[in-house]
TrEMBL record, chain A:
It is found in: Cell membrane. Residues 104-295 form the ABC transmembrane type-1 domain. SUPFAM superfamilies: MetI-like. It comes from Kutzneria albida DSM 43870. This is Dipeptide ABC transporter permease. It is a multi-pass membrane protein. GO terms for cellular component: plasma membrane. GO terms for biological process: transmembrane transport. Keywords: Cell membrane, Membrane, Transmembrane, Transmembrane helix, Transport.
TrEMBL record, chain B:
Residues 4-255 form the ABC transporter domain. SMART domains: AAA. It is found in: Cell membrane. This is Dipeptide transport ATP-binding protein DppD. The keyword Oxidoreductase does not apply. It comes from the Bacteria. Signal peptide: none annotated. GO terms for molecular function: ATP binding; ATP hydrolysis activity. It holds the Pfam family ABC_tran. It is a peripheral membrane protein. It comes from Kutzneria albida DSM 43870. Keywords: ATP-binding, Cell membrane, Membrane, Nucleotide-binding, Transport. GO terms for biological process: peptide transport.
Amino acid sequence: MTITSRKARIDKLAENGDAGVSLVASAWRRLRRSPVFLVGAAIIVAFVLIALLSPLLAPHDPSATLLLDQVSKAQNKIPDPQPGYPLGGDDQGRDFLSRLLIGSQQTLMVGVLATLFGLAGGLVLGTLAGALSGWVDTVVMRIVDVMLSIPSILLAVSIAALFVHPNQYTVIVAVAIVQIPVFARLLRGSMLAQRASDHVLAARALGVKPGAIVFRHMLPNSLSPVIVQATIVLATSIIDAAALSFLGLGNPDDSVPEWGSMLGRSQGLLDSHPELSFWPACCIIVVALGFTLCGESLRDALDPKNRR
Amino acid sequence: MALLEVRDLTVQFRRRGEEPFTAVDGVSFDVDPGQTIGLVGESGCGKSVTSLAIMGLLPRKGNQVTGSVRFEDTELLSLSQSQMRDRRGRDLGMVFQDPLSSLNPVVSIGLQVTEVLERHRGMARKAAMVEATELLDKVGIPDPGRRLSEYPHQLSGGMRQRALIAMALACRPRLLIADEPTTALDVTIQAQILALLKELVTDTGTALIMITHDLGVVAGLCDEVNVLYGGRVVERAARHELFAEPRHPYTHGLLASIPRLDAPRGEKLVPIKGSVADNIPWDGACAFAPRCPNALDTCTQVTPEQESLANRLLRCHNPVEVTA
């Protein structure tokens, strides 16, 4: 028996004994079995489908005041549910169901874009701080600390109020800026952990250049908590964006429906027509819940301590 | 002329508000081309710090490295960071202890091997892939073509260490430092990896610095052994001399604490009493004195100097007598 064939046989045994499963694969396996994730995912899928297909689903033009003749400000009257208008109309005589459906588009766009911009900003700052350390790290992290010390909705309101002409894009900017510090801090933390890791030391021992160390060895390994955070932040973004619209810092053009501004319009009618507040509020809560459930179960699934 | 000359290498960890801690204290040794040198000692004796200092991998902040590390005609300690970076991986390779954590989990093996080839040998991705396949084959990884596209978690421990060795040897460095390369592996794989290292070193004429706490590894591999204690070399001898007649009480204790197949039944192992925590500073004493069975009064009063004996270097006031 030669050494090499013995070596080969032992290697073969070792190989078979180690049927490795990647973190992603094992996370996905656990996600599929998690009822929390399935509920969250179902909500998100339904929400995205509705947002994409709402122009086809909506029975009427959301900005057309079709039922204006049934509105009476003096008598505090708005159109009741009736054939063709299952949820009735709003205080302008516009079909409420259509406005709810079309409103999902704004919510999806603002939520996703604000999170993406926040994520992008956080990635840049977090990478800078984690990769360069030293005074860059100190400066970035102090700014982040200051931003985190202000309640997020207060900060978002302050930023949104800076714009002379508020619209849905200023909402996106305001909400995105508020999310940046969370991502930056998270990424910086895991970058620092990566910097001290064995594989980064091994890469340095091979003479790999600093740029490649950061972008090939540190950053990709630092992303998973940030991605999880992004799904949870989607929920926060949606709520913050709705809050800004509710407070009148969103798109002033009322013909484009948005759940937050619909809620804001109907607060005066809360006594006589609570359903006008109920439906948009319900939509916001359910969608935010969907993203939160997904994010939480994703975090649990990606936690290596839960691997079996 | 030696390939690597380490002279009086001293590493101090300095922290604000704390006494500087000397992790490596005037270590000197030579490595000739093709030679295998062992650095042996228990945890905390400074063997890993020595290797990191040679590689220039200690963070410059908070660490003071003095002395001289000459590689061929270059003083490595005076090179700039980027010059040192060009050397690492090309002239000096290093293999680490834990093969799983030393590989990047999100990058395929192929990309990690070709990264070195592209970096130091300026190869294009395609050529580097071909070369990487050969490298993996050379270190005994079966089916190297498939392994290139796999990720570290899909490889067994032995294969991971082989892949790391392939990466370290990709640019045919003249010096390879192996920092406990077999500690995280089980015994069968250990034997294979050691055989592989020996084979590669002999084939390519690479000098090897083997850092280990395992005297079995030393016995099988090293031409010359440096025993480190408290950051200083306490005994240096060729392998046979060291194992046949350990003179320093520490070396003697290390060897006595290894179970032997030829020992009579029921014979007890003799451990070295105490732990590294019992060390005293080298200033005006021998750091090993509190744990030393041979300690004299002078051992806590005078620092033992390094003496050259016939076949070894020794740092001890009261060495173990040679039993004829």
